[in-house]
Amino acid sequence: MNNINSTYYAKIMLFGEYSVIFDSMGLTIPYAHFQGKFRFMSRGTHDDYDFAIRSNRQLKSYADHLHALSNKGHLTGIINLDALNKDISSGLYFDSSIPSGYGIGSSGALVAAIFGSYGNLRSIHGAKSDPEKIKTLKGTFSEMESYFHGTSSGIDPLLCYIKHPLLIRNKSDIQTVNIPRNKFSKEGAIFLLDSGQPGETEPLVRHFIKRSNDPGFKDKIINELIPLNDNCISSLLMANASEFTSNLRKLSEFQYRHFQPMIPNSMNKLWEEGLSHGKYSMKLCGSGGGGFMLAFADNYQAAVHELNKRSVEYITVYKNAINHKQLSFIFV
Fold first, then answer.
1. Contact present, 131 and 175 (Cβ < 8 Å)
2. DSSP-derived pairing of the beta strands 26-40 and 8-15
């Protein structure tokens, strides 16, 4: 067994949700505000015992799934299932503050924790700086996480495991990347906005893929969404503030027009108002349908004023101001 005491962070996919299905760029970062780690149940301690019981049962079901995959010749020798099952029998559970169905990697963190604690790590030592090992890890994590969503790209658990921002250039080119900070508006900020309800990834992805069979919609994805998405990423990495803000607003408008099934009712008016007054620009965070949405602002106070008027629950993920750097949003 490896280090069972390691902590695994949530993730935020800044750009690339849905468009990566058509091989666009993507950019995802660790988010330490929410996190999880393995513990063993102990009645009478500060643990939420009922939560621990549920988590332990879910781990047992997941371990059974991994065992079935192993019997079919998948993941052979990758996970020490005997050690995992032994610990589950001894009360292992995943103590996580990452909300499920909120688009920030609850299943990805669990998969990363299982691999980090019970996986064969020798073969991927140094993966953070090795594109081929990153690719191998992504394939392993794709198989492991499919249990939770029907299918998985493997990106979320990869990010949660590596704990470093990832740039997805295309499906076969994924690399760690440094994201510049303090080179944009001095009062710029990023928020997570709580829709007040969880979302479900699988049905929304199925809806998107089915809709993509329509040539007109697919043309919009290829010729409008992907260039906007890729330009947002490129301008962010190059610290081109004016181009980033312009592309982000256009991306927000595109998602508002064409991704209505993914926008919760509680977020619709807020999104529309952002497009109207320009104090913030909203976009999906993950598959949508519920959970968190993302909001980017050039002026923190102006954005907060508008959000407070709507009494929306928000988390300030990053504020670019002196002595107020929210480093739970991991830029490096």
1. yes
2. antiparallel
- Which stretches of the chain score pLDDT less than 70? 1, 43-47, 122-129, 181-186, 321-332
pLDDT of residue 49: 87
User: Three-class SS of residue 50?
Assistant: helix
Write the single-letter amino acid at 163: K
DSSP run (H or E) holding 119: none
For residue 80, the model assigns a pLDDT of 93
Token reading at 328: 């739970």
Is the CATH number 1.20.1640.10 carried by domain 189-319? Answer: no
This prediction's pTM? 0.89
Assign domain 8-176 one CATH number from 1.20.144, 3.30.230, 3.40.50, 3.30.70: 3.30.230
In 1-21, which positions are buried (b, 16+ CB within 10 angstroms) versus exposed (e)? eeebeeebbbbbbbbbbbbbe
5-46 pLDDT, tens digit each: 899 999 999 999 999 999 999 999 999 999 999 999 986 555
Spacing of C-alpha 7 from chain mean position: 16
How many other β-carbons are positioned within 10 Å of the β-carbon of residue 213? Answer: 8
Q: Where are the domains of the chain?
A: 8-176, 189-319
